[in-house]
Amino acid sequence: MRSACEAHRPRIEQQVALGRNAMAIYQDLVDEYDFAHRYNSVKRFVATLKHRDPERFDVLESAPGEEAQVDFGQGAPTLAANGKYRRPHLFVMTLKYSGKSFRKVVWKADQETWARLHEEAFRAFCGSVSYVVLDNLKQGRDPPRSLRAAAQRGCMPPYWPTTAPWPIRRASGIPTARAPWRTRSSTPSRRR
């Protein structure tokens, strides 16, 4: 079935290209061309003109056991055993190939706990991955003292994977000794 707007296609396409909405186009058609049809016919016609193909995206594939992503952050306030509200820390390691994940809630967030959680995840997966992506992680910047000492002795655990930390965002933008690459603020300043 042919649209009532087909006779005015060039004018409507021109107005859509200028960014005008269907209501403004309809009012112009009524005023300039004595358009006798309803607004909904213009709205449907404009929607067909604005229809775009979905955005394309790349699918990054990895082999089984090759890569995992780690997220470690605070959860919602929870009533602890002592009757006070505390925020637990949530650890999630997700295998990229299968999507299988290991999740654990802990109350302590230091480097030793962080390393222990990795070991528990590797035990749960019955093996290690060769590459771990750390998602904005403060505890994962430097290996814990026990692993640093093991690396200095040359007896690093054989299952410890290569890590790729995302840079830690600092609101102040001041580079530190631990993060010299941060020279700008990650949060834009608000000017009025």
Your description of this structure?
The protein is built from 5 helices and 7 strands. With 192 residues, it is an alpha/beta fold. The strands form 2 sheets. It has a 5-stranded mixed β-sheet, covered by helices on one side. Strand 2 and strand 3 (85-86) form a beta hairpin. Helix 2 crosses helix 3 (39-50). The radius of gyration is 28 Å and the shape is elongated. It starts with 8 loop residues before the first helix and ends in a 27-residue tail after the last strand. Mean pLDDT is 76; it is low at 165-192.
The secondary-structure class comes to alpha/beta
Report the span from N to C terminus.
Answer: 53 Å
Please work out how many helical segments DSSP would assign: 5
Major beta-sheet overview: 5 strands, mixed
Low-confidence stretches: 165-192
Quaternary state reads: single chain
What fraction, in percent, of the residue positions are helical? 25-40%
**Average predicted local confidence, pLDDT:** 76
Record the strand order, biggest sheet.
Answer: 5-4-1-6-7
Query: What form results from the Cα inertia axes?
Result: elongated
- The number of E-state strands comes to 7
Rg over CA atoms, rounded to whole Å, is 28 Å
Report the portion of residues in β strands: 15-25%
The H-and-E topology, N to C, reads as: HHHEEEEEHEHE
